[in-house]
Amino acid sequence: MSRVLSDAPAHRSVAATPVRTANRTASFVLHASVLAALMAASSAPTPLYPLYQEHRGLSALAITLVFSAYALALLLALLTTGALSDHLGRRPVLVGALVVVAAAMVLLASADDAGSLIAARVLQGVATGTATSAAGAALLDLEHPRRPGRSALTNSIAPVAGMAAGVLAATLVRFAPAPTVTVYLLLAALFVVQAIAVAFTAETASRRPGALRSLHPKLRVPLTVRRALSAVGAGVVAVWALGGFSSSLGPALVRLVAPDAPQAARGMVFFALSAAAALTVWTLRRAAPLATAIGGCLAVLPAASLTLSGLHGPGLPAIYGGAVLAGIAFGAVSQGALRMILASLDARDRAATLAAYYVLSYLAMSLPAVVAGAATQRYGLGTTAHAYGIAAALLAATALAALAAARRGPSHDHLR
Fold this sequence. Notes:
mainly alpha; Growth Hormone, Chain: A; two-stranded parallel ribbon; 2 strands; MFS; transmembrane helix; transmembrane transporter activity
């Protein structure tokens, strides 16, 4: 990951328009819906991968390349445009990014081979990376003084709820005419509506100089955030890697253990994971973040074990049970990590810090999935799944050791 840079000096800024209390809730809901819609669009192709494989001849490696092209483009955007809204304001960055992601949806609707799918997903990744940190930072800007923690909770639950909704919508649309067209056109229309709505909201961030300089690839993370990331980083990598496996190779795993299962069942593995993650975030919203992260890491081992057992007899129940447990781990670690990271964050570092968190997350989601796709071609999906599960369990064990040290260390009292 890029070298972590210290805080930049303060600049004179142009003040944001104050957000009236009456409009705060509406703006908050709008920005939460933007974050959820972006993640819904990211997961919508998952149930459609079997269609691409069967009707367009895409291999498992091609599917992981399509999936990872999106994630890697998103990473590049986070590294370059992740802090842009800290300088230009949330509104112009979000409006521009939403228009671009709507165009990406139109391109996905017309894609008919691996090359065009990858090109459309790259454009989507760039726009989503730009919009994600801006929307998440806007939620922090709109934090209600009487409801502390609402922004951190929403930043945790909106992405996983959105991913679950995207999978479910794409699965249902499979039964409509032209399923690989309909879902993307619906999403394109949604993004256009959201762009128009955001254009009429009040700006929540003060503008300040340095926008061009902020485009240089870097991560700026405050000292307190670095401590939190060092404690929980391996756990974040473990759960996002499990999410990447379920999203890209989950349908192929279902096909391996249950060749006669209906096509709709193949894409629902990732729905089980993301829906369980969303429910876990909500259930644990008042739990201590450090304990939540520890519990999530502990859930990784049984999640991996149950999933792998599906290859040795139990079949689909074990695959789906493992996905639910992985979702519980995902929700617990993600929620605990974000609350630890955002606990003492200055307003001027919001977008940049969220960008750093998502860089780590999407690296963990994309790179292992690419390696797994290539390994599947050479060693088979069963062998690859076993190696993947063992690696995730080792990462979770590493995170547990770091979190245990954080619990004992007096310098980490703010993480508890």
